[in-house]
Amino acid sequence: MLPNLQHMSDNGNIMHLDGALPIQYLPKPPKRPRTSFTSEQLQIMQTHFIQDKNPDAQTLQRLADMTGLSRRVIQVWFQNCRARQKRNPLHDSIPPLDRYQTSWI
Question: What SMART domains does UniProt report for this protein, alphabetically (predicted)?
């Protein structure tokens, strides 16, 4: 690691230079809750995925506005779909509507 940011203590733990806490004891940031998609949101994203598998920033923002989801959630959904397609090229890369729908709104 970078010697000016951390160092090894005598017992082998990595310490911050200020000597506060070993890195393994620093609190982890909280996990973001999973996003539940409605069937309408999935339909919008899946329809666009068929047309464009790698949307630009403007398109991501437009989809976010249409769905009410954040731009980052839309971006990750497209990344996951591309990864599924790469992993299973012979199978349909777009998940069925009910597969990732965890709540009924």
Answer: HOX
Q: Which domains does the chain have, with CATH numbers?
A: 1-30 (no CATH), 39-99 (1.10.10.60)
CB within 8 Å of 98: residues ≥ 6 apart: 39
pTM: 0.61
- Those residues with Cβ within 8 angstroms of residue 45's Cβ, 6 or more apart along the chain or in another chain: 37, 63, 67, 74, 77, 78
Per-residue pLDDT 10s for the chain (105 aa) are 444 444 454 555 555 555 566 677 778 888 888 999 999 999 999 999 999 999 999 999 999 999 999 999 999 999 999 999 999 887 665 565 555 554 444
